[in-house]
Design goal:
Layout lengths: L4 H9 L2 H4 L11 E4 L2 E2 L31 E4 L4 E8 L5 H10 L3 E6 L2 E7 L12 E6 L2 E2 L21 H4 L2 H8 L7 E6 L12 H7 L8 E4 L9 H12 L4 E6 L4 H14 L2 E4 L13 H11 L4 E4 L7 E4 L8 E5 L2 E7 L13 E4 L5 E8 L17 E7 L11 E3 L10 E7 L15 E10 L6 E5 L6 E2 L19 E7 L45 E5 L1 E2 L14 E2 L2 H18 L5 H11 L32 H5 L15 E6 L4 E3 L5 E7 L4 E6 L6 E6 L6 E7 L6 E7 L5 E5 L12 E7 L5 E7 L12 E3 L11 E6 L7 E4 L4 E4 L2 E7 L4
Parallel strand pairs: 2-8, 9-11, 9-12, 10-11, 12-13, 13-25, 25-26, 29-31, 30-32, 31-33, 32-34, 33-35, 34-36, 35-37, 36-38, 37-39, 38-40, 39-43
Antiparallel strand pairs: 1-3, 4-6, 4-7, 5-6, 14-23, 15-16, 16-22, 17-22, 17-24, 18-21, 18-23, 19-22, 20-21, 27-28, 41-42, 42-43
Helix pairs in contact: 7-10, 8-9
Length: 829
């Protein structure tokens, strides 16, 4: 904490990572500070003034004995910064102001401005009125592989910002993983039947916003309610997993049809996702839709569902006898009903809630209580023992249920413990003594018969402005099939509130549904042990507010609409699971869940139901954000057989030079760094066994070489070829060892410039593997140089001629007959 007012003003605007650099004198020795890029120790060399790298965040080359992630920053250096503007509109002007104080390579994206800033200009930042907060950028990479990544391909008119928010773009450009050989089933309202939604599936295919082969429609819905939300979900999936195939089925034909379509899709798909909830799904018992989703998961198909968008818009309490019976007259028969006490204290009694319903608005609720459901119980003769009703009165105690309200009066004994109530204020009531139509009414919950339920909850069902004014503090709203044990319930966070978009304090959407909901009864209708099953829901948080071509409302631009809600978050989770399955097929839904949970960024439940407001940070799982913000890159690189430079595990590093002739690894996971600056004859970098990483950088001075060869060896290897193809030498790369393919996927990243005659790299792949994406080699930047010029690369498939091979230019796949033998990303025409 700063002592002076001046320092407090600085700390309010800039991070310590920048404020600690203020005041460096030009003639001084500089300040030791964290390096921008965490780099490996290289081969031994004596540190000299000339060995200091002239690049952003470059570090002092040190002897091997010195291990430090710090560097020396001088007054003349540039540091990379991320600067948040005070608003979206202020970002372009802030960029101009930063450029005026010396920023280089500056760019604005939404509210964030990034670039390289002179150290001498840092003290000017607090005076910029449009600057909200600024900090240094830090990049963490492992081994010699700090610049991994191929070119990327943007397809379609729009791209979901979840691609960046969840680091899916990094997965794609680092490993070429796109969801190949995965089929994702989508369940929503409709796909291509809406008469009001702009565009169509055909137009989406023509613009590249849906797969070229289209989407398999298992069952569509054609009605007035159709808005083709399923097509919008498909666009989001396709943005993150463009290699996956897609199927669709509707959920708009009733709960039974919904359940059946879940199982139909689970038979033909590897992953299923939905965004539909039925009000008739039980809160406190597993219903038919939930059981179908659970069955799909138990049989091996990951099932993802939108958690809901109800926040904590619910009332929950045990039924308490107020001691004030309500006398009602229905059909000439007078009944005295037990009335619920909304006041939990022992000092007061409140036998009604005040409800505000503005004229022209409505108030709709679903009331359920902890009794077994007939429709959800397999055992015969099981149903609710209690009968609760919902009554609405005006302020003169006139009953409105039979006049202006609908529902709330079902007979429930032996049936489902469920009431649906809807009241619309049409402006025809004026009894409160205030001129004008009444807008405040009384709501009662009464019991006709049966035991007092130990828990009841009503959920505000409509998006109107009707809302309780008294005795309402909020309650969980996640229920139904998202609450099943093995389904994944997706919470939502606005993409612009994620760290990738500059947010230092990422927080979930306030509307994302909150857990938990206890399950009191089993599928036979039997009472579970005291307290019921408490399931940790939601499970994971994913981005919403992302772009589609037609669905949603434009918020951050005037062209592409933003798709908000957990309906947008859920398909992003499904797409990331497709990426995981491509690298490691055959994982169980539980294994996938564990990976997503363990690699997520922990978020806070800022609507803590025990406090009804912000409290201490909720470490680990919480009932608003689940296990945290999904991180696709962290999840994928945590899988087995991952090249060592992409994992968190330390690797044995071997540094070589051109004079070594043969740079060999060991049986362990190695990181080989070969710098080819001169030399004669042949040079080889061979990883041998292990999940190795090999970096070969060829200098323009290596003209006397005949052959430069990189061999991955056994294991899942990552080979990077950089520099320039020598005028005479041949550059050969293969992921396999000399005795053939080991069935592991190798990744070859070509960052090399073509030779003077346009020559490139010769890549050899073998065809002895299983022919699946998880065992087939991936070549990144095939045929494309770092500056996106052409390079004459060659793919050779061992033992096969070109006439025996075919190429799919939409997927970037090389095949021998029906067998996959090589993959290219980005795909080339």
């Amino acid at each position: 904490r700063s002592a002076s007012a001046e320092d407090e003003a600085i700390d309010a605007k800039i991070s310590w990572t920048l404020s600690s650099l203020i005041g460096i004198q030009p003639e001084g020795e500089g300040v030791r500070a964290p390096a921008t890029v965490q780099r490996p120790r290289r081969q031994r060399q004596q540190p000299t003034a000339r060995s200091r790298r002239d690049e952003v965040g470059g570090e002092q080359q040190a002897p091997l004995e010195a291990v430090s992630s710090f560097t020396t920053i001088r007054a003349t250096d540039l540091v990379t910064v991320d600067v948040a503007a005070t608003s979206l509109d202020d970002a372009p002007r802030l960029l101009e102001e930063l450029q005026q104080v010396g920023m280089e390579d500056g760019e604005a994206f939404h509210k964030v401005v990034s670039g390289r800033l002179p150290v001498s200009a840092i003290d000017k930042l607090p005076s910029l009125p449009r600057l909200h907060y600024a900090s240094r950028s830090f990049i963490v990479h492992r081994g010699a592989f700090d610049l991994l990544g191929s070119h990327d391909v943007a397809t379609g008119q729009t791209t979901s910002q979840a691609d960046a928010a969840h680091h899916v773009d990094v997965v794609r450009t680092t490993l070429g993983v796109t969801g190949r050989r995965q089929r994702i089933g989508i369940i929503s309202d409709s796909f291509d039947t809406s008469r009001s939604a702009p565009g169509s599936a055909a137009s989406d295919i023509s613009t590249g916003d849906l797969p070229r082969d289209g989407v398999h429609i298992l069952d569509d819905f054609n009605g007035q309610e159709s808005i083709d939300e399923g097509r919008a979900m498909a666009q989001l999936v396709y943005d993150l997993a463009p290699g996956a195939d897609l199927s669709f089925a509707t959920a708009f034909k009733g709960a039974a049809s919904f359940a059946n379509n879940i199982l139909r899709l689970a038979k033909e798909c590897d992953i299923v996702v939905d965004d539909i909830g039925y009000g008739s799904e039980p809160f406190f018992q597993d219903g038919i839709v939930g059981r179908a989703a659970q069955k799909a998961a138990e049989e091996g198909t990951p099932y993802i569902s939108a958690a809901g968008n109800d926040g904590i818009n619910a009332y929950q309490a045990p039924f308490r006898d107020s001691g004030k019976p309500t006398v009602v007259d229905f059909g000439g028969r007078t009944n005295s009903l037990v009335t619920h006490d909304f006041d939990p204290s022992d000092e007061r009694v409140a036998d009604y809630q005040l409800i505000s319903v503005p004229v022209g608005n409505d108030f709709q609720i679903i009331l359920q209580w902890s009794e077994p459901w007939a429709s959800a119980s397999d055992a015969p003769g099981v149903g609710s023992r209690s009968d609760l009703d919902i009554l609405m009165y005006d302020m003169a105690d006139n009953l409105l249920n039979t006049k202006m309200a609908t529902g709330g009066l079902d007979q429930n004994v032996g049936k489902d413990a469920y009431e649906m109530f809807a009241f619309e204020n049409r402006g025809g009531i004026d009894v409160d003594g205030v001129p004008g139509a009444d807008t405040v009414f009384k709501l009662k919950i009464v019991k006709w018969e049966g035991p007092d339920p130990e828990m009841m909850r009503y959920l505000i069902w409509s998006n109107s402005w009707g809302f309780p004014l008294t005795h309402f503090t909020g309650a969980p709203t996640l229920w139904g099939h998202p609450n099943m044990k093995d389904t994944l319930a997706a919470a939502a966070i606005y993409y612009a509130d994620t760290p990738r978009y500059g947010s230092q304090y990422p927080t979930a959407e306030p509307t994302t549904s909150h857990g938990p909901t206890p399950i009191f009864y089993d599928t036979q209708g039997n009472k579970k042990p005291a307290g019921g099953d408490i399931r940790a829901k939601p499970d994971i948080t994913a981005a919403d507010g992302t772009h589609t071509t037609f669905f949603g409302t434009p918020v951050d631009n005037k062209v592409a609409p933003n798709f908000f809600g957990t309906s947008a978050a859920a398909p992003h989770v499904a797409a990331v699971i497709a990426l995981l399955n491509e690298w490691k097929p055959g994982m169980t839904p539980k294994e996938i869940r564990d990976i997503l949970f363990e690699t997520a960024l922990d978020l806070d439940d800022y609507i803590d139901l025990s406090q009804q407001g912000p409290g201490d940070f909720d470490e680990g799982h919480d009932y608003q954000t689940g296990h945290g913000l999904m991180d696709a890159y962290a999840a994928v690189t945590s899988l087995d057989n991952m090249p060592t430079c992409l994992t968190k595990a330390p690797a044995a590093e071997v540094a070589c030079s051109a004079t070594d002739g043969h740079c060999k690894g060991t049986s362990a996971d190695n990181a080989l760094v070969l710098s080819v600056e001169d030399g004669k004859g042949s040079l080889t970098a061979d990883g041998e066994d292990g999940n190795d990483c090999i970096s070969v950088t060829i200098s323009e001075d290596a003209d006397d070489l005949d052959l430069v060869k990189a061999v991955g060896g056994r294991g899942s290897d990552y080979l990077v070829i950089d520099g320039k193809v020598p005028s005479k030498a041949k550059v050969e790369v293969t992921g396999a060892s000399s005795d053939g393919d080991d069935g592991s996927r190798d990744t070859i990243l070509l960052r090399i410039d073509a030779g003077s005659d346009g020559r490139g790299v010769e890549v050899t792949v073998t065809s002895s593997g299983e022919g699946t994406p998880s065992t087939t080699d991936m070549i990144l930047n095939f045929g494309v140089t770092k500056d996106e010029k052409c390079r004459a690369d060659v793919i050779k498939v061992g033992g096969l001629g070109s006439s025996q091979l075919s190429y799919d230019d939409s997927r970037g796949e090389v095949r021998a007959g029906d067998k996959l033998v090589g993959m290219i990303y980005p795909p080339l025409p």
